[in-house]
Design brief:
Order of helices and strands: HHEEEH
Radius of gyration: 13 Å
Largest sheet: 3 strands, antiparallel
Structural class: alpha+beta
Distance between the termini: 36 Å
Number of helices: 3
Number of domains: 1
Strand content: 15-25%
Shape: globular
């Protein structure tokens, strides 16, 4: 088994990630119900995962897969510009 890759993150985002987990959008809640507890082909996903200077809605370390669920907040001009 090869060692897991260390993924850098900004510790200042930890509290914001916690707040986002506690205030999920309907789309995030729906998707989380389908992938939590290794329900999706046995892969382990995490919610609101700080990666570098970003927070991904969902992340699977084994697949090195990040999922961003767009919602109403991404329609705000400032958020859209940061997303790009």
């Amino acid at each position: 088994m090869k060692p897991r890759k260390i993924i850098p993150y900004n510790p200042r985002l930890k509290e914001l990630a916690r707040q986002l987990r506690n205030n999920s959008t309907k789309a995030e809640v729906f998707l989380w119900q389908k992938i939590k507890r290794k329900q999706y082909y046995g892969y382990d996903f995490h919610r609101q995962k700080p990666i570098d200077n970003f927070i991904l809605d969902f992340f699977c370390h084994e697949l090195m897969l990040g999922i961003e669920v767009d919602g109403y907040s991404h329609e705000v001009v400032e958020v859209y510009k940061r997303d790009v």
